[in-house]
Design a protein that fits this description.
16-stranded mixed β-sheet, two-stranded antiparallel sheet, 20 strands
């Protein structure tokens, strides 16, 4: 920890200009920390006789990956190099209803240097699940097929989010996505019927695979809204939204590539 000193930080702006920012760091008011060695923490959370589960995930900065395939409720691997970012994880079951909270630790000090924060999470699909993901900035890749999701809620401020809806769906899932100034990429298998709704004008929507509905919203091309497997409510700020056919992607990427697009 560094405190009680003055430090100048130089930043090269997008127009090639250099801006000198002088931060007065004194022990009584503000201190700063530097990233340390990379730490890796792994954990496994069982269902503990839960009949249904609510999962809340909050990451204020970093890279997040979520997919199915676990035998337990949650298998997680965390990698980070800021001590205060160690995740908080709590799970409790009451009357057959489980609630899991996973939250990134916060530091009040100014962090200087190259930081890393990665969550690789694998979830099970044994019981009905409601999943809420809140990402402040960074990137996230979510593959919800096989998770037995009743509802999926994603909110991210800036950065990139890749949602892969490929895989086998046995039940109807509702989803709500709110994105600020980032880019959202959704991969759709051609056989999946999706109904898309939004209360806003989707100026950033780029897709040729949706048809407008008479009562508002859109349905994936060739699909019947009565057969919809995913009903998606989309709320956007200044970000962009793109829908891709999953059969055009090579492999099953678990990380968004440059510009928020899946690696192809």
């Amino acid at each position: 920890m560094i405190s009680g000193q003055s430090q100048s930080i130089w930043i090269r702006g997008s127009f090639g200009a250099q801006v000198a920012i002088t931060a007065l760091l004194c022990a009584a008011t503000l201190s700063c920390v530097q990233p340390g060695e990379m730490r890796t923490i792994s954990s496994v959370v069982g269902y503990r006789d839960a009949d249904s589960v609510s999962v809340i995930m909050e990451m204020h900065s970093g890279d997040l990956s979520i997919e199915g395939g676990a035998d337990s409720l949650l298998n997680c691997k965390f990698r980070f190099n800021v001590e205060g970012w160690e995740p908080y994880l709590n799970y409790a079951v009451q009357r057959g209803s489980g609630k899991l909270v996973l939250r990134q630790g916060r530091v009040t000090d100014l962090v200087l240097g190259e930081t890393h924060n990665e969550w690789d999470l694998t979830m099970g699909g044994s019981v009905p699940t409601r999943l809420s993901v809140n990402l402040g900035s960074g990137s996230c890749a979510i593959h919800p097929a096989g998770l037995n999701l009743q509802h999926l809620q994603i909110e991210f401020g800036s950065g990139n989010c890749f949602l892969d809806l490929g895989g086998e769906w046995k039940k109807v899932m509702s989803a709500e996505i709110t994105c600020g100034v980032g880019e959202l990429v959704v991969a759709l298998p051609p056989e999946l019927t999706v109904v898309l709704r939004s209360d806003q004008v989707l100026s950033g929507l780029r897709s040729t695979d949706f048809s407008p509905l008479e009562n508002g919203g859109w349905v994936s091309a060739g699909g019947d809204p009565e057969d919809a497997v995913v009903v998606l409510q989309l709320n956007t700020g200044l970000g962009e939204v793109e829908f891709l056919r999953s059969d055009t992607l090579e492999g099953s990427p678990d990380r968004v590539g440059p510009g928020g697009r899946p690696d192809r």
